[in-house]
Amino acid sequence: MALRPWWRVLLAITLAAVTVLALWPGNNNPPSLFGWHVINHMVAFVVLTMLARAAFPVLPRLWLAGLLLAYGALIEIVQAIPALQRTASLADLATDAVGIAIGLILVWIAGQLAGEPW
């Protein structure tokens, strides 16, 4: 309970960093199915999911997943702006969804190990 404000600060910093990295101009190469691009998306959304769950533990998991997926969709929409020289992709959004699912599973496992409710 006492750490919740710090989890929220860390979540805000991480959201800002992911947003800047996702919208940084350049690199409009189409994503490949395997490689760093996919790993970056997955790791970002695993971390965001875990931080969001720690920062807002009473938020229903479905809402948390929906909000994070909406954030990922917003990034993809903005990446479609030609001036950014980025590439929007539904595959990226699907990868974000997989990262969110993995994050929720890891949070559940951690909660089980700590004896806390899911």
**From N to C, what is the helix and strand string?**
HHHH
**How much β-strand is present in the residues?**
under 5%
Gyration radius over CA: 15 Å
Report how far apart the termini are. Answer: 16 Å
Going by helix content, strand content and strand pairing, the class is: mainly alpha
The geometry reads as: elongated
Could you please describe the fold and organization of this structure?
The chain is an all-alpha fold and 118 residues long. It has helices spanning 4-23, 36-55, 61-79, 90-114. Helix 3 runs antiparallel to helix 4. The mean pLDDT is 89.
Structure keywords:
elongated; 118 residues; mainly alpha; 0% strand
Q: How is this structure best summarized?
A:
The protein is mainly α and 118 residues long. 71% of the residues lie in helices and 0% in strands.
List the helices and strands and how they pair.
Layout (H helix, E strand, L loop, with lengths): L3 H20 L12 H20 L5 H19 L10 H25 L4
Helix pairs in contact: 1-2, 2-3, 2-4, 3-4
